[in-house]
Design goal:
- With 123 residues, the chain is α/β, with parallel strands linked by helices.
- Helix content is 39%, strand content 21%.
- The chain has 4 helices and 5 strands.
- A 5-stranded parallel β-sheet has the order 2-1-3-4-5, with helices on both faces.
- Helix 2 runs parallel beside helix 3.
- The longest helix is centred in the C-terminal third of the chain and has 14 residues.
- The protein is globular and about 35 Å long.
């Protein structure tokens, strides 16, 4: 598999650091963002294959960040990572194939599996 670049978006700093190190050991290139604004700035500056997005962010509504990410980066996929149930039905039908869901809490291995699944599944 070619080099995969990820953006991890979560305001839980210990979790963000842990996941970044784990995913880098798994061979991914990883950037992080602690807020929705940082995530949107990063997506404007760099190209990512996938964004792992926590919907509970301190500055912007997670669903608005999701909508903006999908619009700003048409080739990017998004893995919604949330402690609350989330359905892809809330995403416009034209974007649903680009969105996956991983419920928190999860172990890092489950995250890697979900990342690989969404990237392989969508080509």
């Amino acid at each position: 598999m070619a080099e995969i670049s990820l953006l991890l978006v979560d305001d839980e700093l210990p979790l963000l650091g842990l996941l970044k190190k784990y995913l880098e050991r798994e061979g991914f290139t990883v950037e992080t963002a602690e807020t929705g604004a940082q995530a949107l700035a990063a997506i404007d500056d760099m190209r990512f294959n996938l964004v792992v997005l926590d919907l509970n962010l301190p500055d912007l509504a997670g669903e608005e960040v999701l909508k903006d990410l999908l619009a700003r980066s048409p080739d990017c996929r998004v893995l919604v990572s949330s402690g609350m149930p989330y359905s892809r039905d809330r995403v416009p039908e034209s974007d649903r194939a680009r969105v996956g869901v991983l419920m928190k809490p999860y172990v890092p291995r489950q995250l890697v599996e979900a990342i690989r699944n969404i990237l392989v599944e969508k080509g």
